[in-house]
Amino acid sequence: MIDCRHLRKVYLAGTPREKVAVRDISFQVKAGEIFGLLGANGAGKTSTLRTVATILKPTSGDCYVDGASIVTEGEKVRRRMGYLSGETRLYERLTPKEIVTYFGEFFDVPAGEIAERRTRLFGMLAMNEYADTPCGELSTGMKQMVSIARALIHEPAVLVFDEPTAGLDIFAARRVLEAIVRFAREGKAVLFSTHIMSQVEKICDRVAIIHRGSILTEGTVPEIAARTGRESFEDAFFALVEAHDAQVA
Amino acid sequence: MPRWHKVAALARKEISDMIRDRRSVFMAIVFPLILYPLLIIGLIQGTVVEESRAQKAQPLVAVNGRGHAKELAKALYADKHIRVTEFDGTQLPEGAVLGVIIPKGFDDAVARGETAAVKILYDSADQASLSSLDKVSDVIDSYGRDVLAERLFSKGLPASFVNPVKSDQVDTATPRKRGVFKLGKILAFLLVTFCMMGALYPALDTVAGEKERGTLETLLSIPATRLEILSGKYVAVFAMSVASVVSNFVSLSVTMLMVNNLMRSAVRTDMAIDFRVPTDAIFYIVPALLPLAAFFSAVSLGIAAFARSTREGQYYLAPLYVAALPLTSVALVSSVNLTYLTAIVPITSISLFLKDGLLGTLSFGPTVVALATTCIYAALALKWAASVFGREEVLFGAPTLEGEARGVRGVPTPGRALMVWAVTLILFFYMGTPLAARWGIFSVQTSFVINAGFIVGPALILAVIERLRLREVFPLAMPNPRQAATLALFIPAAIALSIAANVIQRLVIKSDTLLGSPVLSQSGSFGVLAVSLALLPAICEELFYRGFLFKAFSARMAPVWAVILSALVFTTAHLNVFEVLPLLALGIVLALAMRATGTLLVPMAIHFANNFLFIYLAWYHPKMSFDWGFAASAAALAGSIIVGVGLTWAGVRVAGARRG
Predict the structure, then answer these.
(1) Domain coverage including residue B61
(2) Does B100 lie in the same domain as B9?
(3) How high is the ipTM of this complex?
(4) What pTM does this model have?
(5) How many domains does chain B have?
(6) pLDDT tens across A172-203, in order?
(7) Which residues face A22 on adjacent strands?
C-alpha cells in the first residue's frame, strides 16, 4: 500500500541555507497494517509524512501510495490517502458538519454519498452531539475526532497520521488510538508517527526508528529489542540513537 | 488551467468561513455603512453649529487713536458684530483678539483727499483674530466707500468714474455638475481606498490566518493543485473587495442624498449644489474597480502568504497601504487627469479614471490603456501570488533545525543589513547638515566623515560585534586578469545606461540631473570634487552596498532579487528624486559586476569611473544638457540602452557567472 524508496528531503536545496531533513529512507506498509515511525522532535518524522502526503516535494527518491507515485501522481496519492497531524487543525468558524461536507466536495464525493458517509462516521466516532457546533467551541479531543472524520470522508485506502494524539488528554488519546486500530482492521494501511513509545508498543504491527533523518532500524517491537540485546523497547531505542550519534561524532 | 468546479467549491468554503469572521465583514461592509452617515452628517452639523456660534460671538477689538478718526471710530463702535475697547497702541488688553491703530492726522488726510492708513494688529494663528479681521475690514471698507462717494459727489463725478470696467460672472454649471465637481475627487479617492481595504483583511485572514490556525496543511492535503487552492482564496478575497466597494458606494450615495436634502433649503438657488451621486456613475465604477479589486486581491494574497500570523501580516501589508495612498491621492489634485502617461501608473490610473468619469471628461484612448494596464498588473500580481503560494519555505517557514546557519554564518541577515542602513540614514540626516555647514557640502572632510564614518562605520562595527567574516562581507581580493578585463565592458555599460536614464528623465520631467548643476560647477576645485564625489563614494558605498548589503541579500534570496533590491536601496539612500533612474541603472550594473567577479575592487572602479566622468562634464561643460529634442533623444536612448545592456551582459559572461 505504501512503498517508499530512497526518499530524501532537503529544505532550501541549493541555497546557502540548505538543510537535510530526510536522508535516503525506505520502508513499506501493507494493507491492514499499522506502521509506526518513532523518533524524537526534529528527527524527520513530520518531513517524511508531509512528503509522503505530497504536501512537500521530495528532493529525490519516490514513494508509491496504493500504486500512485508521490512525484508524478500527487493528486491520485491525495485521493487515496487520509492525512492528519497535530498541525492539521480545523476551521473554527465552521461546524463539523460543514467541514466534513466541504472536504467531501473537495474530494469529489457525490452530494448524496457525503451525507450518508458523514452520518456513518459521526455515529462511529460519537460526534453527533456536537455536529452543528462551531469547531472553535469544541474541546481538543472533539476537534481531533472531527479531523479524523474529515480525513476519512473520501474513504481512503491509506491513512497517514502524524502525531495524532499530540495535545490530547489520556481519554481522547485512547479514543483516537482505538479508532486507528479499527481502521487497520478494516484493511486500511496506517502510517503513524509518534514520539510516545507506549503507543508504539500498544498498537503498531511494525515500527521504524528515525533519527537525524535516517531510519536506524525497522521491525516488530520484540524484534528491535532482541536485535539490540536490550530488555525493554525504550532501552533499545536509546541504545540505537546513542550508537548513531557516537558514529556521526 | 485550474478546474473551475474545484475553484468554486474552495471559494464557497472560503466565503462561508470569511463571512463568519466579524472583523473582516465589519471592516469591509458594515464600517462604510456606518461611517459615511456619521461622518458627513456629523461634519455638516458640527460646521453649522460652529458657524452659528462664530456669528453670534462678539470678539473684543482694541482701538488706539479713536480721536484721530471720529467717523471711522463711530462706525467701529456701532458695529454689532464686535465689541470695542481702547488700548495704548503697544500691548493688546486681556481678551482682545485684534488691535486697530489710527495714526494722528487720519481725518485731516481724508479731508485733503489723500489715502489715510490704519494699522491692524492680528494673529494669523488664531481663528478668533482672523474672524475679527474680516469684520473690522468690512467696517473700514464700508467707511472707505462712503468717503469715496462723498469725494466723487463733491467733484460732480458719477460712481462709474472709479469702475470703468465691470465683469458680470455667470456660472453656467448646473447644480448637478457643481456637485460632481466637488464630489468626484473625494469619491474616487474613497472608492479606491476601500477597494484596497476590502481586499487586505480577507487576504490576511485567508492566508496568514490559515497558517496561524494550522489549517493550511489540511487544505493542502486535498486533491487540488496549489493554483486551484489559491484561486479559491482569490475569488473569495476579490468578492469581499467588490462587496466593500458596493457597500461604500451605496452608503455614500444614500448619505449624499441626505446631505442634498439638508442643504437644498439652506443655499441660494444660483449657488445650489446637487450632491447626489449620479446614477450613471455605476457604469464607470464597475469597469474601473473590478480590475483594481483583482489587482489588490492578488497583491494582498501574495504578501499575506509570507506572514506566519495575521499580526505579522499587518506589518507586511502596511507598506502596500503606505505606497498606495499617495497613488490614490493623485485624484484629489484637480489639475491631474487621465492621460496616456498617468494611465500606466498602477492605482493612480483607476483613481483618475473614476474622477474623470464622474466629471465627464474621460477620453477614450487613456481609458482603454488604464483598464488594460490594470488588467495586466492584476494578472502579473496573480502570477506572482501563485509562485509565492507554491514555495514550501513560504508556506511552512524556513527550517530552523541544527545546521540552519551553515553557509550563511559570517554574512548578516537582510533584516540586520537594512537596520544598519537605517542607522546610516539617521546619521546622515542628523549629522550631515552640521558637517556640511562647517566644512562645505562638497569638501573632502565632509565626504570622508559621511562615507567612511556614516556609511561604512556602522556596518564595520556590526561585522566586528557579530564576528562576521570580514573577507566574506567586504571581499577585496585582487581581480584576476579576466575579471579586470570586464572593466572595459562594465564601465562603458554603466555610462551608457546612465546616459539612457538621463535622457528618459529629461524627456519625462524636463530636468537634467548632475549636468549643468551651477552648485557643483562653482564649488571648490576639480581635484577636491574628484576625491569627495568620486573616489570616496566609490570606495565606501561599494563596501556597504555591494559588500555588506548585497552579500546579505544574496545569501537569503534569489540573485535577481538581490540585485534589484540592493539597487533600490542604493537609489533610495541618495534621497534625490532627480537621480532615481541613473542611480537605479548604476546600482544594477554594480551589483551584477560584483556578483560576476566576486571582488569589490571591480564595482569600485566602475563607480569611480562613472562619477568621475559626470563630475568632469559638470565642471568643464556646465552648460551641457540632455535636452536634445525628441528624435535625437529617442535615437540616443535606444542606442545607449542596447549598448549598456549588451556590454553588461558581455561583462557578466566574460567574468564567468559566479555566486555573489
Answers:
(1) 56-159
(2) no
(3) 0.89
(4) 0.71
(5) 3
(6) 888 889 989 999 999 999 998 988 888 888 89
(7) A9
